[in-house]
Amino acid sequence: MSGVWVFKNGVVRLVENPGTESLDGSRQGSNTRRKVLVHTPSNEIITSYAILEHKLWSLGWERYYDDPDLFQFHKRSTVHLISLPKDFNKFKSIHMYDIVVKNRNVFEVRDI
C-alpha cells in the first residue's frame, strides 16, 4: 500500500492516490483509476457481496451475524474476522486488502 497519510480533524487516514484526492477527501479529475477485488483462480472481478460470499464460503469462511451494521465472515480454523460495510458501494480498497491478506493467493487487488 502506498500513498500519503493525512491528519485532519483528529483522524489519520491514508490517501492512496494523493494526486486524485484532495485533503478533504473529495475526488479531483476524471481519469482516476478504480481498485477492484479479483478472485484469481477464476479471474473474476467481485461485483457484489453475493459473489464474494460464495467465493469465501468455498474457502471455509462462514457468515457471522453478530453486528447488523456489518457484513462479516469468520473462519473456524483461525481467529480471523472479515468485517465489511453493509452497503457494497462503501466497499473500499482497505476492505479488499483485508480479504487479500487473509486469503493469500486466492484474491488480489487490481487497478482498472
Low-pLDDT stretches are none
Find the count of extended strands (DSSP E, 2+ residues).
8
Number of helices: 2
Structural class: alpha+beta
Oligomeric status: single chain
Protein name: Flowering-promoting factor 1-like protein 3
Family: Belongs to the FPF1 family.
InterPro entries: FPF1
Could you explain how this protein is built, in words?
This is Flowering-promoting factor 1-like protein 3. This protein has 112 residues and is α+β, with helices and mostly antiparallel strands. It has helices at 49-58, 93-102, and strands at residues 4-8, 11-15, 35-39, 44-45, 61-64, 70-75, 81-85, 107-111. It has a three-stranded antiparallel sheet with strand order 4-3-8, with helices on one face. Strands 5-6-7 form a three-stranded antiparallel sheet. Strands 1-2 form a two-stranded antiparallel ribbon. It starts with a strand and ends with a strand.
Which structural traits does this protein have?
112 residues, alpha+beta, three-stranded antiparallel sheet, 2 helices, 8 strands, globular
